[in-house]
Design a protein that fits this description.
Elements (H helix, E strand, L loop, with lengths): L18 H20 L9 H25 L5
Helix pairs in contact: 1-2
């Protein structure tokens, strides 16, 4: 019977993310865009073009926000 002894080195790395910066960069702009899109509920029925324009603008703004945020992230496999 072999009695091999091995030394063991244990360590721990604590990693934290600054959640406030994520909140400022992503959540607040998204809430502002959604609040503007919510205004579509208060558009009168005879101004349907304005309501459609507001909805399309909000959708395109959210898509642009998504591309802006995803371009800042590093690529992973």
């Amino acid at each position: 019977i072999s009695e091999d002894y091995f030394s063991v080195f244990e360590y721990a790395i604590e990693i934290q993310r600054k959640s406030f910066s994520v909140f400022i960069k992503i959540i607040i702009p998204l809430f502002i865009i959604m609040a503007i899109a919510f205004l579509n509920l208060f558009v009168q029925r005879d101004q349907i073009e304005a309501g459609a324009g507001l909805a399309i603008s909000a959708l395109l703004t959210i898509i642009a926000l998504h591309f802006s945020i995803s371009s800042q992230l590093p690529e992973v496999n």
